[in-house]
Amino acid sequence: MNAAAPARTYPTRIFSGIQPSGGLTLGNYLGALKRFVEKQNEGIESIYCIVDMHAITVWQDPERLRHATRELAAGYLASGIDPERSILFNQSQVSAHAELGWIFNCVARLGWMNRMTQFKDKTAGKNAENSSLGLYAYPALMAADILVYRATHVPVGEDQKQHVELTRDIAAKFNHDFKVDCFPLTIPVIEGAATRVMSLRDGTKKMSKSDPSDASRINMTDDADAIAKKLKRAVTDPEPLPDTPEGLEGRAEARNLVNIYAALAGTTPSQVLADFGGKGFGVFKPALADLAVSVLSPISAEMSRLMQDPAEIDRLLARGAERADAIARPILEEVFDIVGMVRSRRG
Ligand code: AQP
Questions:
Q1: What are the two backbone dihedrals, phi and then psi, of residue 220, each rounded to the nearest 5 degrees?
Q2: Beta strand 87-90 pairing with 153-155
Q3: Is 122 a catalytic residue?
Q4: Of 55, 66, 201, 204, whose CB has the highest number of CB atoms within 10 Å?
Q5: What is the mean pLDDT of residues 40-50?
Q6: Considering only CA atoms, which residue is closest to atom 22 of ligand 1?
Q7: How far is residue 17's CA from residue 52's CA, in Å, rounded to a whole number?
Q8: C-alpha of residue 17 to centroid of ligand 1, in Å
């Protein structure tokens, strides 16, 4: 292991995850789930995870966590993830994540972690000293989630870009320190019209499942009435919509609604403005509500159906975990060997 290892080729493999830290939002759907399904349907090997160990970096009621984990699994399935073509499981059932996570805690530098903006955002206005050590170390565990499968691509929303860049730094440092080519430099895949869906109450804040204001987000389980009401009350300005995206400059809330429309319709903001330019929000918001309901209602109906059989969801997750473990374990054993850990039990 001392000489520089020959360059390795890493087959294209996708990994991504979502935290069961509450119900799914439209942001999670457009920024993540919808795109996961597109990747799966392009035939790319895909591993999708319910990152329950990340969720507990902030307090979670155990019963709610169990429910949110199953509901998130239902959300993946209802959105179109096929548990045969993709691997779908919850993180805590594959212990290789935690094991590699510890090794990466020893690779990542404090200076790198101090620059993570999500930690700063999540502790803003609170006593950071009272945050869990897990919340601080979260990006190193996320690097392990990705690299324990040698994933080459991670579809994420804009907010996770910095964490994927840290994953690259950790991979590069590990490869360099041990003079090996063990991990790929994973690429964040941030694409589409809605890589950062904003709060309906404040166009400068990300739509988030843990925002205390339910009016700030559309939940995947909201009914048609709730969706229409939330969009009707969404903060906007009094001006009509412009004819081109350049006219959205300085109009964060208007831009957000146009982006949401474009992502839901599978079109571009330019096309949306070609159709709605010059019209006011009194016309645009009801059209957006109809579109959102037509996309989300079948998914939420399917989620409710799946949630009637939690044992079947648990069975699917266990099967997914077995398949994930079969990929992760040999990679982890290689890492232990590189690091110099004696593994006598392996015979
Ligand atoms: N508002 C968003 N716009 C676009 N993408 C988003 N994602 C989340 N919010 C938006 C993407 O969804 C995936 C899963 O995110 P997560 O649940 O692991 O954590 P998060 O990014 O911290 O999402 P939340 O909803 O804000 O959760 P809480 O409130 O628990 O922190 C990621 O790909 C993310 O980019």
A1: -65, -20
A2: unpaired
A3: yes
A4: 55
A5: 96
A6: 208
A7: 10
A8: 9
Q: Indicate the pTM of the whole model.
A: 0.94
Q: Whose CA is nearest to atom 7 of ligand 1?
A: 28
C-alpha span between 40 and 34 (Å, rounded)? 10
Q: Which of 39, 120, 173, 206 is catalytic?
A: 206
Cα of 207 from ligand 1 centre, angstroms = 8
Closest CA to 290 of 261, 313, 312: 261
Which atom of ligand 1 is nearest the CA belonging to 54? 18
The per-residue pLDDT for range 309-327, each reduced to its tens digit, is 999 999 999 999 999 999 9
Domains for the chain: give ranges and CATH numbers.
Answer: 13-195+309-339 (3.40.50.620), 214-305 (1.10.240.10)
The CA 194 to ligand 1 mean position distance, Å, reads 12
Distances (CA, A) of 316 to 77, 91, 244, 328: 10, 14, 46, 18
34 belongs to the catalytic site: no
Residues having CB closer than 6 A to ligand 1 are: 18-19, 21-22, 25, 27-28, 31-32, 156-157, 159-160, 195-197, 206-210
Q: Which numbered atom of ligand 1 lies nearest the CA of 51?
A: 18
Tell me if residue 179 is catalytic: no
Q: What's the pLDDT tens digit per position in 50-84?
A: 999 999 999 999 999 999 999 999 999 999 999 99
Backbone angles phi, psi at 109, to 5 degrees: -100, 145
Q: Is the pLDDT of residue 13 over 80?
A: yes
